[in-house]
Every structure is written in C-alpha cells, then in structure tokens.
Write a structure and sequence with these properties.
Rossmann fold; NAD-dependent protein deacetylase; 380 residues; 6-stranded parallel beta sheet; Sirtuin_class_I; alpha/beta
C-alpha cells in the first residue's frame, strides 16, 4: 500500500552518500554500508548453512500470541517499520489507487510522466509542480492516527527501540516521537536545505510553510538557489543515519512490527531480514506482504516473511487497517481504553491549537488593515 507520505522508490543499498551530507562524510558512509552488507551476508550464510538456532518464542502465530509475548516481559526492544498505510486514515491520499491515487490526479501539472514530480533533475528545472502539490499535502493539515499514537504508547511504556518510517508527513513527530525515536528513511518536511552544494543553508518547517502557502517558489536567502524539503527524491540517496542505525538496532530487536507498507521498496524492505532468526515479526496491513520467494526458499535462501508454510514459526499477518490492527492489539494488551483516550485528548489539543492559530492570524490581519490610514481629503 503506497501513500503520498511515502515516496515509492529509492537508491539501492550500495549507494549510500546522501545529497544532504558534505563530501567529507562519503568515506564513513561507504564504510557503514559495507559493514551492514557484511552483517546481512553473515546472517544469510548462517541461515543457508543451517547454523545457529531458530528458537520459537511465540506460543501461537496469532495477534494474541504476540500480545502474550509482549505481556511476558521478555519483549523490551520493539522496532516498528511503517509506511503509507498508517497515514491514509488521516486523509492523505495514496499513490496508485485507480481514480483516487495521487498519480491518477496529477494531469493538471502537465508532467511528462507522474513520477517526474519527485525526480530531482526535473525538480531543479521545473519546481512549480512539486510545490503546488506540497501545498495540498503539507504537514500540519492532518492529525496523527490511532496507529501513530499506538507507537507513542510503546515509547511511553519503554518498549519502543525505534520507528523506521518511509513516510514524509511528520505525523510520527506530531504524535510525540522525537528525533532519536525515528529513522525517517525517505526524509522529511521537518527541515529543508538549499540545493546548492556550495551553500546548503538549512531552513525550518515554518519558513518553508510560509513560502509554499504564499505561492512563492522557495529560494535561498543567501545564494538565491532553490530550497527543497529534506525528502528523498528519485535520484537521491537515503540518509546515512538509516544505514548506521539499522546496523545497531536490528540485531537487538526482539519484536518487529511492520505496518502499512507493501515491503516492495528497497533498501527499506530488506530490513525485515536483519533481525535475528528467533525474532517474531508481526505484519498489520490490508494484504500480506514481504513474503519469501518460493524458489529462493527451496534453495535455502530465506529472509522474507513466512506466514503459511509448514515451517512457519515466528511470522504473524493480521489483515486489517492499521488503526483496527493497533486497536485489536491494544485491546489484547489491556491498553485499548488508554489508547482511545490518548487519541481523543491529542486530537482535541491539536484542534484547539489550530483554532487559536487561526484566530491569531485573523486578528493580525485586522490589525494590519486598521493600521493603514485612510486617504486624507484635500482642503480646497
């Protein structure tokens, strides 16, 4: 399931140096990528040769089995991998749904092809379509979903190791996940930078928002080059933090929760294979995703999800919307009332803030209008 908050494809894993990093960081990024590749190969060979043990830690391969495991106290380092599906109930359109998807409604921008709106080379020559679209989808116009607040509860209860997100809508941050809690694999609107390698001046969310909603093409105050939100376009590389963090996080993971993603975009999708062989993996999605290729499975090359075979021992698929799945899991954990109250309180707070902001803007506009003195009539 893809979403306008989730850009659909990225550079392959070997291409690690992000545009946002200085040239001096290139060697450390290449080294980090090489080390993570070695970790993956070690796990692959271990699995293929039958080395190591695959301990079964779930009593049953159901949502209730996952809940019992969490309640056992043995689960203290949960990683969430999330994509488009966690934000669709907030009102953000997806990419590919026929008729309603983002790509089906880009004709008004006169693009050579739909994906061009997210290609860096096209953006540098024709930034207008992207910023017109950004105005429609800009962060701050949507509220986090039940799924976002479920992850916030995991954090508050000391269970969340990290959230790896493909989304660029910043709703994880709005829900209360902070910088250290998040790996924004496909970048974020939270910050922006001048596209000039010689400048790279940083701008914050409010600066960019003011430009976009004034219908101005954002340009650097320092060098007049374009300023682009720090989202990863086609032709750009993922942030180096994605590669360095996954090396540390996934070997320690004791429960992987995957929500709202088709697990088709690399290198993000490959993260599911980086947890230990004993680590349970829960998928909450509208359809099964990330399953191992049957042919590779016969050859002994595992790594993908296995929900249905006789050898399945750790993977659970809960087919539903992300919000319904999180509510169901929260209910089994005894957290449902707490989660619903958290959502209610936070949405009320956000609505109140929006109302105050709107009233402040109206008052400011009236004051500005009143301060303009009327034209004085000439004396005869």
């Amino acid at each position: 399931m893809s979403d306008a908050s989730e850009l659909p494809e990225r550079k392959e894993e070997g291409e690690v140096s992000p545009e946002a990093e200085e040239q001096s960081d290139d060697s450390s990024e290449d080294e980090a990528a090489g080390e993570t590749d070695m970790d993956f190969l070690r796990n692959l060979f271990s699995s293929t040769l039958g080395l190591g043990s695959a301990e079964k830690v779930l009593d049953e391969l159901t949502l209730d089995g996952v809940a019992q495991y969490i309640k056992s106290g043995k689960c203290k380092n949960i990683i969430c991998m999330v994509g488009a599906g966690i934000s669709t109930s907030a009102g953000i359109p997806d990419f590919r749904s026929p008729g309603t998807g983002l790509y089906a409604n880009l004709q008004k921008y006169n693009l050579p092809y739909p994906e061009a709106i997210f290609q860096i080379d096209y953006f540098k020559k024709h930034p207008e379509p992207f910023f017109a679209l950004a105005k429609e989808l800009y962060p701050g116009q949507f509220k986090p979903t039940i799924c976002h607040y479920f992850m916030k509860m995991l954090k508050d209860k000391g269970l969340l190791k990290r959230c790896y997100t493909q989304n660029i809508d910043t709703l994880e941050r709005v829900a209360g996940l902070e910088g250290d809690d998040l790996i924004e694999a496909h970048g974020t609107f939270y910050t922006s930078h001048c596209v000039s390698f010689c400048c790279r001046k940083e701008y914050n969310l409010d600066w960019m928002k003011e430009k976009i909603f004034s219908d101005d093409i954002p340009r650097c105050d320092k060098c007049s080059s374009l300023v682009k939100p720090d989202i990863v376009f086609f032709g750009e590389n993922l942030p180096v933090r994605f590669f360095t963090s996954m090396k540390m996080d996934f070997p320690r993971c004791d429960l992987l929760i995957v929500m709202g993603t088709s697990l088709q975009v690399q290198p993000f999708a490959g993260l599911v294979s980086r947890v230990s062989k004993s680590c349970p993996r829960l998928l909450i999605n509208m359809e099964k995703a990330g399953q191992a290729d049957p042919l590779l499975g016969l050859l002994g090359f595992g790594g993908g999800m296995d929900f249905d075979s006789d050898k399945a021992y750790r993977d659970v698929a809960h087919i539903s919307t992300c919000d319904d799945g999180c509510l169901a899991l929260a209910d089994l954990l005894g957290w449902k009332a707490q989660l619903e109250e958290l959502v209610k309180q936070e949405h009320t707070r956000i609505d109140s803030q929006d109302k105050k902001s709107s009233e402040k803007s109206e008052a400011s506009a009236k004051a500005s209008s009143a301060s303009v003195a009327p034209e004085t009539k000439k004396e005869e």
